[in-house]
Inverse folding.
């Protein structure tokens, strides 16, 4: 069990190490194709934190929420991406993204046990902002579809990492729940810092 948790933590550390500590959206005017789309969410600290937190929260809720909550995020993010690619304006996108990190971290830290449908609505509301940010930077040609597939795949991978972390922590006898809560608190604090930096 401990070796399993160690492998999960190592995989998550690699994913987080791949992210940039700078702003989440440095601009990708020349971006195109699956690889650029896949790397885009991994290049933003806010995206990584929010998406891993969705997975952690799904693991906390368990049951059908384990797959319905992340699936909702991916589906609504795709919709938000389509809106962004089509040029529809969405106010306060960066604020919405930063708030998602705060709120999703907080629900993990506080072990907020929402019904599955309410949790789906919660993550879906924030997924629109994440999707819009990606879609607005998506190439307007055929490679845009590959780009979208890439950022959706990266999102699902990050959700999976969060689920694995959450389930792994849950197997730690005695203090696993507290570790997950501490991780959620750290995410929420990072979100507050991101929110303070939004202009």
């Amino acid at each position: 069990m401990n070796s399993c948790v160690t492998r999960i933590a190592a995989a998550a550390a690699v994913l987080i190490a791949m992210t940039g500590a700078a702003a989440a959206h440095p601009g990708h005017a020349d971006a195109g194709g699956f690889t650029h789309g896949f790397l885009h969410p991994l290049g933003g600290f806010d995206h990584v934190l929010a998406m891993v937190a969705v997975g952690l929260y799904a693991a906390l809720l368990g049951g059908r929420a384990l797959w319905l909550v992340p699936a909702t995020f991916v589906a609504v993010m795709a919709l938000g991406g389509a809106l962004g690619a089509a040029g529809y304006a969405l106010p306060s996108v960066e604020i919405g993204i930063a708030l998602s990190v705060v709120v999703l971290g907080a629900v993990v830290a506080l072990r907020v046990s929402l019904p599955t449908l309410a949790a789906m609505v919660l993550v879906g509301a924030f997924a629109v902002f994440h999707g819009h940010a990606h879609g607005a930077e998506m190439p307007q040609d055929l490679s845009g579809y590959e780009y979208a597939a890439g950022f959706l795949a990266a999102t699902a991978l990050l959700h999976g990492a969060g689920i694995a972390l959450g389930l792994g922590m849950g197997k730690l006898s005695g203090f696993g729940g507290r570790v997950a809560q501490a991780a959620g608190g750290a995410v929420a604090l990072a979100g507050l810092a991101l929110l303070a930096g939004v202009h």
In short: The chain has one domain: 2-197.
